[in-house]
């Protein structure tokens, strides 16, 4: 049996040689930041390239052991892939994999290879995305409460309550009645939610369609400047807005016919996922 680590050296050498004329960068070992802890995580081999203007990261983890690799290692690779935001993960074993590990790899979308099966031509195919996964970030208003600022007198508080009662039916989610001095224009509750998208979906790991109820406090960007409700009788200062939401993700896939970069407020695009906000 080859000395420990020799197969990894051979793998990296083969990748460097086979991909030398491409834009795919091979690094071994590599240190990549964990998206949650912000600490560096080591990967055996990283492959970095682009689809259009979007950066793609593929990681390869290798083991040179006498026995077949088990479920635990596959789970560790899947966790590392998700934690560092890699688009793809490949497990390379010199001794093969147990049946349980193979089943877990299918479930976790981890590709299994031996040293002989790694072909630079195949790697180039990995960087040619054929489909895109769309995660529709859906939300539904359950309740919204506006708290008047402590500086208001009784007449102003009464005017604010009167203004809120003037809305018939459901709460005015799309009515632009919120004035924030830090914003360029009047805002609606929907606008405020889009501005807090990262906070609202923090911790969500797609794909999942499970509905979750959350509570969110909408506060002014500048607390000293405050923010206000625009009423027929003028601006009335608010302390904050408490919102109760039901949120979930809807997942669809579509074939890629062309690739471009897409990045506007409230939307995010990458090579393998596209997040879009929709209100239910």
From TrEMBL:
One GO BP: DNA restriction-modification system
UniProt lineage: Archaea, Methanobacteriati, Methanobacteriota, Stenosarchaea group, Methanomicrobia
Organism expressing this protein natively: Methanosarcina siciliae C2J
Domain Restriction endonuclease type IV Mrr positions: 5-118
Domain of life, per lineage: Archaea
UniProt GO molecular function: DNA binding; endonuclease activity
UniProt protein name: Restriction endonuclease type IV Mrr domain-containing protein
């Amino acid at each position: 049996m080859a000395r420990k680590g020799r197969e990894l050296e051979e793998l990296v050498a083969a990748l460097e040689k086979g991909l030398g004329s491409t834009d795919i960068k091979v690094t071994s070992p590599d240190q990549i930041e964990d998206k949650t802890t912000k600490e560096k995580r080591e990967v055996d081999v990283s492959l970095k390239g682009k689809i259009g203007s979007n950066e793609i990261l593929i990681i390869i983890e290798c083991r040179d052991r006498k026995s077949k690799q088990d479920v635990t290692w596959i789970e560790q690779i899947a966790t590392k892939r998700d934690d560092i935001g890699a688009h793809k993960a490949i497990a390379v074993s010199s001794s093969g994999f147990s049946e349980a590990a193979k089943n877990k790899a299918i479930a976790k979308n981890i590709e299994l290879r031996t040293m002989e099966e790694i072909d630079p031509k195949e790697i180039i195919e990995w960087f040619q995305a054929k489909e895109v996964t769309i995660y529709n970030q859906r939300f539904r208003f359950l309740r919204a409460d506006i708290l008047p600022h402590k500086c208001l007198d009784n007449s102003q508080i009464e005017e604010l309550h009167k203004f809120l009662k003037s809305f018939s039916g459901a709460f005015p989610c799309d009515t632009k009645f919120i004035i924030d001095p830090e914003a360029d224009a009047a805002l609606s509750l929907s606008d405020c939610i889009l501005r807090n998208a990262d906070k609202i979906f923090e911790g969500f790991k797609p794909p999942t369609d499970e509905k979750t109820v959350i509570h969110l406090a909408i506060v002014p960007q500048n607390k000293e400047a405050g923010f206000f409700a625009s009423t027929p009788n003028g601006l009335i200062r608010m302390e904050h807005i408490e919102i109760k939401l039901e949120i979930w993700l809807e997942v669809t896939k579509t074939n890629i016919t062309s690739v471009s970069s897409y990045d506007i407020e409230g939307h995010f695009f990458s090579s393998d996922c596209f997040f879009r906000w929709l209100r239910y």
